[in-house]
Amino acid sequence: SGAFYFFSHSKTLPHNRPNICARPFLEMGFAHVLHKKIYLLHPIPEMGYTTEIIAMQPILLEGKLENL
Fold it and tell me: Per its UniProt entry, which superkingdom is the organism in (predicted)?
């Protein structure tokens, strides 16, 4: 496949916001190293590794699968 799609629906309490956990983050790193396109269904959340995710230049779908 030429791309990786991340549809993380997990949410963290107490804020109930979308979150990217460790495993999807690791998979995004592999996709980036392999020069694959990375798609995120939701905006990048504020986390400890937000800067690293931004550096991978994912394509944001803004919650809409039709943006694929």
Answer: Bacteria
